[in-house]
Every structure is written in structure tokens, then in C-alpha cells.
Model the fold of this input.
Amino acid sequence: MYEILQATYKDGHLILNKKLSSLLEGKTVNVIVLDTDEIETKKKRFLDFISKLNTRLT
Done:
């Protein structure tokens, strides 16, 4: 089972935006940290690149 949740890091703690499933109660979970600001920056660069192309897509 997996869930993708957002969390805020504050004062050394991750604060989840919603509660985890009760199925995970007492279990150890793995956390992968992904900086969403970096994703937004790459997305903006890609969209800027695409907007400069002069080709019409059908």
C-alpha cells in the first residue's frame, strides 16, 4: 500500500496535510522528500520553452 501526501516541514517535524490510513497504525513507513519548488521551476522553464516554439500542434 502507498499514499502520496503533502507535508510541511517546521521546526524539525513533518506536519502532514491529512491523516494516514489506519491500516498503517504501528507500522514503519518510508518517507521520500521531494522539493516541490524545484518541480514548479522545471515546469515553468518547460512551459516557457514550449511557448517560444512557433509550431502549431494539430
Remarks:
- The first strand starts at residue 7 and ends at 10.
- Residues 7-52 form one domain.
- The two ends are 40 Å apart (CA to CA).
- The CA atoms of residues 37 and 43 lie 10 Å apart.
